[in-house]
Design brief:
About 45% of the residues lie in helices and about 10% in strands. A hairpin with a 5-residue loop joins strand 9 and strand 10. It is globular and about 70 Å long. The chain starts with about 60 loop residues before the first helix and ends with a helix.
Length: about 450
């Protein structure tokens, strides 16, 4: 019952060379599949963009082509064969049409284009410090998110400049519509299972505190900007979904235009690095075949729900999901476990050993306090023999508790999905990704249910 088997090379930039701007198709939101269709390139220019402000209408077409030429003009370089692709004009990614050897440098972004949370501190000075103090006073836990707050302020400042911003063409290439927790309506939240709802609400709460701190008025950004809900939410989502975090020489968050076109994979083939001068270099960490997307890891591949809450997509290559025992968080903390320890396999429904531990621990706490203490000590000291004795003795009861949990989640997910499918996609465009998330949970839990039923 309790067994479960489960160099980067330095980039020396040559002289800047212009490369052909090509267009093709990109993966759908929930996974890359199929051939890529090449589209005809369009002419691009830096003038005549049709106004000084960036339109944030959700249906505005992303001008990625002008961004690519802008990037190349300012020193961004790609090795031959690396191109931008889209399926629908909304989602984009970098893909290679040539073989790339592990250790090769595939992309270079000079430091003058990199947005740095530390540079924001120097740029905004005391005004930013006052806003940060207000943020931390609201919630001391927000101190660790100050680098994200700084990037949001920077995005707002550059948005206000319009075409006068150095990053105007990059900003104009970004998505206007996001699918993550911050972007969801109250109706969307009503269709999420508890764990996904908690994570999404955490992001929404952070966003609200950021907005309140900015609206204190210390940061020198126009009132019409900081009081425009659509603008501040967009700025937050840009910062939240496009940063890379580094820890040396200091912890900070960085955004390197063009690297934000790298998609997620549980088996990434490139990594993003920064040299001592702040230049960004993307290196291949595996051999990459022609026609493959260039991918990085955006988070723990064993648990897709945090990625769903932060980025608004569902990875199609996840092999495990959290067991959704959010009601046992107290027991999880007591035993020193992490959500990544408490998994169901998506292909078989198999149950991680520590899932059995938390359900038995709760059962013992409710019925035999002394036994609960002994089991707790066995878990904390890795006394597997004692743990197994408890599991063997109480197995029928633990099995029933797990069954009850799985039945409950299945019933809840079915109801939530039915509710989501009743919504009009025109007014609730995030329904498909919510349903995809719920379907993954349901399909996995059905297999776990069958496995539990076979045990007795």
């Amino acid at each position: 019952i309790l067994s479960w088997a489960t160099t980067a090379a330095a980039f020396s930039p040559p002289s800047l060379r212009k490369t052909h701007i090509s267009r093709s198709q990109h993966e759908p939101r929930v996974g890359y599949a199929g051939q890529v269709r090449r589209l005809s390139p369009l002419s691009v220019s830096y003038s005549g963009m049709g106004g000084t402000a960036i339109s944030l209408d959700e249906w505005t077409e992303r001008d990625v082509y002008s961004m690519e030429e802008w990037a190349q003009t300012y020193g961004v370089q790609k090795i031959d064969g690396v191109e931008l692709y889209t399926a629908d004009g909304e989602d984009w990614q970098l893909i290679t049409n040539s073989y790339v050897q592990a250790g090769s440098s595939v992309l270079y972004i000079p430091s003058n284009l990199v947005l740095s949370s530390e540079d924001v501190v120097r740029e905004f000075g005391q005004d930013l410090e006052l806003s940060e103090n207000a943020l931390v006073q609201m919630d001391k836990g927000q101190k660790k998110r100050l680098p994200l707050f700084r990037l949001m302020v920077k995005i707002l400042g550059e948005y206000e400049k319009g075409q006068d911003s150095q990053w105007y063409l990059w900003l104009n290439s970004l998505p206007r519509r996001f699918y993550n927790g911050v972007s969801m309506t109250d109706a969307c939240f009503e269709c999420l299972p508890p764990y996904a709802a908690v994570l999404s609400m955490n992001e929404r709460n952070t966003y609200s505190r950021f907005v309140n701190a900015i609206r204190k008025g210390w940061v020198p950004i126009g009132q019409e900007i900081i009081h425009d809900d659509r603008v501040v939410k967009w700025a937050y989502n840009v910062a939240l979904t496009r940063f890379t975090e580094v820890w040396n020489p200091v912890r900070q968050k960085l955004i390197a235009p063009m690297t934000d076109m790298l998609n997620h994979s549980s088996e990434p083939n490139v990594e993003v690095t920064f040299d001592d001068l702040g230049n960004c270099i993307v290196n291949a960490i595996a051999d990459i075949q022609p026609g493959s997307p260039l991918t990085i890891s955006l988070g723990d591949p064993t648990n897709p729900t945090p990625l769903f809450a932060q980025y608004g997509f569902l990875a199609n290559d996840c092999k495990t999901i959290f067991c959704k025992a959010i009601h046992l968080e107290e027991q999880i903390i007591d035993l020193g476990y992490d959500f990544k320890d408490l998994l169901f396999q998506t292909e078989t429904g198999e149950i991680a050993p520590k899932v059995w531990d938390i359900f038995l621990y709760k059962l013992l706490q409710d019925n035999d306090f002394e036994a609960a203490n002994q089991f707790y000590v066995a878990c904390k000291t890795d006394d597997e023999e004692t743990k197994q004795q408890y599991h063997d003795y109480y197995f029928p009861y633990t099995l029933q508790e797990l069954k009850n949990h799985v039945y409950s989640i299945l019933g809840e997910v079915d109801q939530l999905t039915m509710k989501a499918q009743s919504y009009d996609l025109e007014t609730h465009p995030r329904v498909p990704v919510i349903v995809a998330h719920n379907d993954l949970v349901r399909d996995t839990f059905v297999m776990t249910q069958q496995l539990l039923e076979s045990m007795g």
